[in-house]
Structure formats: structure tokens, C-alpha cells
TrEMBL record:
Keywords: Glycosyltransferase, Transferase. This is Glycosyltransferase involved in cell wall biosynthesis. One of its GO terms (molecular function) is glycosyltransferase activity. Gene3D superfamilies: Glycogen Phosphorylase B. It comes from the Bacteria. PANTHER family: D-INOSITOL 3-PHOSPHATE GLYCOSYLTRANSFERASE, GLYCOSYLTRANSFERASE. Transmembrane segments: none annotated.
């Protein structure tokens, strides 16, 4: 397998702090025998440590000036008008700009990726593309005629997770990759409805490392809740703050605590909301921890007494925080959106309706005492290990998805349909 280079296309990884799952997945890509070359499409401050032998190339990163130039040169070509005339594009400036940038990205990245493949062939190696997100760069990979597999998570599947309510080239991209691998069954159903052939779909859950949690349990009269997400609109943290406030007021006999981990553009407004509405509730404390490194989040979950991790998002994929909570023996409460229902089963927590109304929220929190025993917490840990083990899930992904593409001929890009000119 050392004669095969796996080009791993990311958003920013290893730069910045996002895409944390990849830190756990890369060792299994190496274990499978691939040479791994990471291709981020953008950069951020800071670069995380990588295992020995993993290469990083900025060949796909475009400067702001390049982005503008390429959008003007390639953004309004045949592919742009094909998408517009299909009626798929909302008529607003944000959606049209995203489409133009997507079309330019396909064209520019395809040329650069083909050059990389030529270099691999000259060195006597094969190239395989693995894109972590189902984006226009995935389409560019398919245009290079090498095997392509892409994962798909949330905002690259569900249009409502995007500010414009639109995923550029959503229908056009559907038949381009050899395999599309969503991280939830709900994601697979949505992708099939968007035109991805079912024989090219394979659900593969992500995973987190097994932990040895301390299984600290709050006292009977405590209700200690944790949320862990970016502070952005779709996470509805203002709604969660209000639900926590209402619960504390309705249950004065309970000592309520809410921890939130995660930063983002709406953290300051959330802090102001909490100051104005939560601070005066006698039996309620709250702590907004802000952004924390993934290792610190895991340590917090494994050593802190918490009754439940709560997620009231309006739309989701399969939240990493919920997987981490299960491995730490923490019950989970979440809205029935996206892939959350695939995590929240009666043995590990409670499912809320999509609107996360106060009655359902209070009932879920009232039910948490059934998990206040070492046996119940140990059962949650075991459930997490069975379904969301990084070792099991990433080895299966390599053996069942990636490795077959190395020995099987790729599905050729359908002629001129892949040419964005």
C-alpha cells in the first residue's frame, strides 16, 4: 500500500482547531498502509502535531486576491448558468456568490489536483482522494479521474444548516464520487433524495477514543447540565438558556448548574442574555467556559459530575460532543433532528421534539435520576464503546470503503458533465 498516496482534503486541518475527529482517524489511515498527504483548502493560525510521515500541502489554498480573480474568470461560466437555469438557486446575493465561488473552485482545484496525480504517477504511485466534506473540491477530485470517496456530515448535506439555505451544485455533484459516506442514516436518506445513487452510499459513524472516566455522579437534588457546541444560531443556545432558567424556576428544590463549552460569534450575546435572565435565579448557576481544546473537553467530561449533555440544535449531523459524553458515561438529551435520534436511545438518554418545548425539556431533566448510579453510568460507557469506538469505526472505514477503491477501477466522471467551463 505504500505505493498509494491518500490525498486527504480538509477544510483547515491541521490548521486551527476544527475537524477534531481527524486527529483520531489519521493513525488508522497509516495503519491501513496509505501514504497520507493532507490538502487543506484554507488556513488558520496554529498547526497541530501530526504522526511521522504525514505530509501537508497548501496547494489548494487560495489567497483572497486569487479567490476574487478566479471568481471573475471562472465563476460565471457554463456550470454557473446550468445551475441557475435549473431553478435550484435561491435568488439572493449570498447564494449566487456561493455558487460562483463553487464553480471557480471546481475549475481551479481540478487543474491543481491533476498536477498532483501526474507527480504521483511519475513517482510510480497511485493517488486516491478522500475528502472530509462533500464540497466543490470533491467534484474537482472526481474530475481528475482518480478514485474518490467523500464523507458528509451536516452543512454539506442539509441546506437548512447554511445561511443561504442552499448547497451549491447539490444535484450536479450527486453522481461524481465513487462513494459518499455520511455519518448518519438521516444523512444517507437526504443524500439519496438529492440524487446520490444508493449503491454509492455507505453510512459510517465517526468515533472517539475509549476513555477511563471517573463516573462522578451529582447528588440526588442536583441537576448539572452541560452543553458543548459552537455559539452559532443553529445551535439555539439562547433557547437552551431559557429552558434551563424555566426549569430552575419550576424546581426550586433542585440545585441547578449549566456549563457551556464552546466559543463563537454568539457567545457574547449569550453571556449578556445569561447575565440579564439567569443571574437572579437563586437555585441556578451557570458557567460559560468558552472555547477549549479537545483534550481539555474530554478531561472535563471524564472528571466532572454531570447529569446530562444537552443539545437543542435546530439541525445536526452526529455531534461529536454526544459521542464524547457517552464515552464519559454521561447521559445525553437532544432534539430529534438530523442524526441525533441515532445516538439518543432510551438506554442512554432522552429525545426531545424538534421545538424543544419547555414541557418536554422539563420531563427529560426530571427523568435524569434514573441514571444516578454507577451501574447506569457504566452501561452508558459500554454503549458508547460499542457504537462509536474510533478504533472499530475507522478500521472498518478503511477496510470496507477506502481499500476496495484502490483495487477496483474508479467510476469515470461522466464526460463533459465534469467540465465546469
Amino acid at each position: 500500500m505504500q505505493n498509494t498516496t491518500l490525498f486527504l482534503v480538509t477544510h483547515r486541518f491541521p490548521y486551527g482547531e476544527g475537524e477534531t475527529f481527524l486527529q483520531d482517524e489519521i493513525p488508522y489511515l497509516l495503519e491501513a498502509g496509505f501514504r497520507v498527504s493532507i490538502l487543506p483548502v484554507s488556513r488558520a493560525s496554529g498547526r497541530r502535531a501530526l504522526p511521522a510521515g504525514v505530509e501537508v500541502s497548501d496547494a489548494l489554498v487560495l489567497t483572497p486576491r486569487q479567490k476574487c480573480a478566479y471568481m471573475l474568470r471562472y465563476g460565471l461560466g457554463r456550470l454557473f448558468w446550468q445551475e441557475v437555469l435549473s431553478g435550484a438557486v435561491p435568488f439572493n446575493a449570498r447564494a449566487l456568490a456561493r455558487l460562483a465561488y463553487a464553480c471557480a473552485t471546481v475549475r481551479v482545484h481540478k487543474e491543481r489536483l491533476r498536477a498532483m496525480l501526474t507527480a504521483e504517477e511519475n513517482a510510480g504511485r497511485k493517488g486516491v482522494f478522500y475528502t472530509y466534506w462533500f464540497t466543490p473540491t470533491t467534484c474537482a477530485c472526481a474530475g481528475s479521474h482518480a478514485p474518490v470517496v467523500t464523507r458528509a456530515h451536516g452543512n454539506d448535506i442539509f441546506p437548512e444548516q447554511n445561511a443561504s439555505g442552499y448547497i451549491p451544485l447539490c444535484r450536479w455533484r450527486a453522481t461524481l464520487p465513487d462513494m459518499v459516506v455520511p455519518c448518519s442514516r438521516q444523512g444517507a436518506a437526504t443524500l439519496e433524495a438529492q440524487g446520490v445513487p444508493p449503491q454509492r452510499l455507505a453510512v459510517s459513524y465517526l468515533g472517539v477514543p475509549e476513555a477511563e472516566p471517573q463516573l462522578r455522579i451529582p447528588s440526588p437534588n442536583e441537576r448539572i447540565l452541560l452543553s458543548c457546541s459552537s455559539a452559532v444560531a443553529i445551535k439555539r443556545l439562547d433557547l437552551l438558556a431559557e429552558r434551563v432558567r424555566q426549569y430552575a424556576l419550576a424546581r426550586p428544590e433542585c440545585a441547578c448548574v449549566w456549563h457551556h463549552v464552546g466559543g463563537g460569534e454568539l457567545l457574547a450575546p449569550l453571556a449578556e442574555y445569561c447575565k440579564n435572565h439567569l443571574q437572579g435565579v437563586a437555585n441556578l448557576q451557570y458557567v460559560l467556559h468558552g472555547q477549549m481544546p479537545v483534550d481539555a473537553v474530554r478531561a472535563f467530561m471524564n472528571t466532572t459530575a454531570v447529569d446530562a449533555l444537552v443539545n437543542v440544535s435546530a439541525s445536526e449531523g452526529v455531534p461529536v460532543s454526544m459521542m464524547e459524553a457517552l464515552h464519559a458515561g454521561i447521559p445525553i438529551i437532544g432534539t430529534a433532528v438530523g442524526g441525533i435520534a441515532e445516538l439518543v436511545t432510551p438506554d442512554v438518554g432522552m429525545l426531545l421534539p424538534a421545538d424543544a418545548n419547555a414541557e418536554a425539556f422539563n420531563a427529560a431533566v426530571d427523568a435524569l435520576p434514573r441514571f444516578k448510579s454507577p451501574a447506569a453510568r457504566a452501561a452508558i460507557v459500554q454503549a458508547g464503546r460499542q457504537r462509536f469506538s474510533s478504533a472499530n469505526n475507522y478500521r472498518n472505514f478503511c477496510s470496507q470503503v477506502l481499500l476496495p477503491l484502490v483495487v477496483a477501477p474508479p467510476l469515470l466522471c461522466p464526460g463533459d458533465n465534469c467540465d465546469p467551463r
